[in-house]
Write a structure and sequence with these properties.
By secondary structure, the chain is α/β, with parallel strands linked by helices. The protein folds into two domains: 67 residues, no CATH class; 163 residues, Vaccinia Virus protein VP39 (Rossmann fold), CATH 3.40.50.150. The chain is built from ten helices and seven strands. The chain has a seven-stranded mixed beta sheet, sandwiched between helices. It is globular, with a radius of gyration of 17 Å. It starts with 9 loop residues before the first helix and ends with a strand. The relative contact order is 0.16.
Length: 254
Amino acid sequence: MAETSQQWDPTLLANPHAVADKRRRVREMFAAIAPSYDLNNRLHSFWQDQRWRRKAVKLAQLKPSDVVVDVACGTGDLTLAFAGAKPRAAYGIDFTFEMLPIAKRKSEISDSQSQISNPRYVNGDAQSLPLPDACCDVVSIAFGIRNVQDPAKALVEFRRVLRPGGRVIILEFSLPTNALLRGLYNFYFKQILPRTATWISGDKTGAYRYLPQSVNTFIGRSAMMSMMRDAGFGQVEQHAMTFGVCVGYRGVRG
């Protein structure tokens, strides 16, 4: 892998979504932090991340006949949550290959303990999914849409692989609407989390400087809902969680 030290410098972090080679940088960044990814997620969300994923599964309103595709699946947490709801099949897709062996190991453990259907994992890009048209009933992406080079293109791709009536489920970080809570959250998000998460992971890519900036410079809730509608989704709705720190979006393919 190419040298990744200090990938995200202050100039790039002014607006990480405008960086021309964002796709490459994001992939190398996640490859570097894969071994400590779950630990940092649990600690720095105060164990809320799994609750958010359970909410995403509820929003999908799964049926036993459904096929689920979890995009940007990372280490498989949301894929496993969907698999635990026992759809017909569950797939995890991520373009950072280094995440997938971790997801597979977790799936094997869960399968042996709870008899859930073992998900299948594929290396692939959200903007060009290795799937045929109208092949699934739910497409999800958790905390990944802002990391895609072109989120609008990814949403169009999600619609392509969904059957009519299929649901898209998006989890993404947001900012509390209350000014006091937003100030406290930003202090934690910008000053504390980058230091502690970097120390835990030993990261040299600037991943945990990128994280708060990628959230603060990403589109807002109204713009996300508009983007979903522009991609061809109807019945678009949002569900704020934990004082608005996380938002679940849901749309239906007509």
